[in-house]
Write a structure and sequence with these properties.
By secondary structure, the chain is mainly α. It is built from eight helices and no strands. α2 runs antiparallel to α3.
Length: 199
């Protein structure tokens, strides 16, 4: 079992804080403890699994104060059209049951790399990265959303650089990639208004 699996045993995203690990364990332990479920073998096995995960995560999880905010430079929450809430406690990667564990891990790693690239304003590299991920995992709505946001962020930067035609193309690409995201549409409309001021 790898680290991500231990976090999942406790219902947490990979990289969750020490406080989150303790809180989740206490909640699950009360639910699955053998004293609460006498003779229930499934509950006993679940209790053993979460206890093993808890003991392991106690050795690696960092206190919340030591965690770097994961949303800096990549504010997915303002565009979020799904139910997943973006927080600074853990990577906001939505678990997709259709993905293999390997694909889920790749997705998490790509997300963190994408954040860093956008934070450093390396937009062409970020777009190449997310397009590669979208080709590898084509039917994941969250990845499509990240791709649209990357296009929009690059389009906004191009507006600042007065590259009007190129900016317009990337903003249109953002809408085409994630057409049902109302918050994204609002951001792109704002960008188009900014484009009009340049003329």
């Amino acid at each position: 079992m790898d680290t991500t699996d231990y976090y999942r045993q406790l219902g947490l995203r990979s990289g969750a804080s020490l406080e989150a690990v303790k809180t989740s364990y206490r909640k699950l332990a009360r639910q699955y403890h053998p004293d609460v479920n006498p003779g229930n073998e499934v509950a006993r096995e679940k209790f053993m699994a979460i206890t093993e995960a808890y003991k392991f995560l106690l050795t690696i999880a960092k206190p919340e104060a030591e965690l770097e905010p994961v949303t800096s430079g990549f504010k997915v929450s303002q565009y979020q059209s799904t139910k997943v809430k973006i927080t600074s406690k853990s990577p906001p990667i939505e678990f997709n049951a259709e993905l293999t564990p390997e694909e889920q891990k790749i997705k998490e790693n790509f997300y963190l790399e994408l954040q860093n690239l956008l934070k450093c304003k390396r937009f062409p590299r970020a777009i190449a990265l997310i397009e590669g991920l979208a080709q590898r995992i084509p039917h994941d709505a969250e990845i499509r959303q990240w791709q649209a946001i990357s296009y929009q962020r690059w389009g906004r930067q191009l507006i600042r650089e007065k590259q009007v035609d190129k900016a317009r193309n990337y903003l249109k690409k953002a809408l085409k990639t994630d057409p049902h995201n109302r918050a994204l549409w609002a951001e792109v409309e704002r960008d188009f208004r900014q484009l009009e001021k340049i003329y």
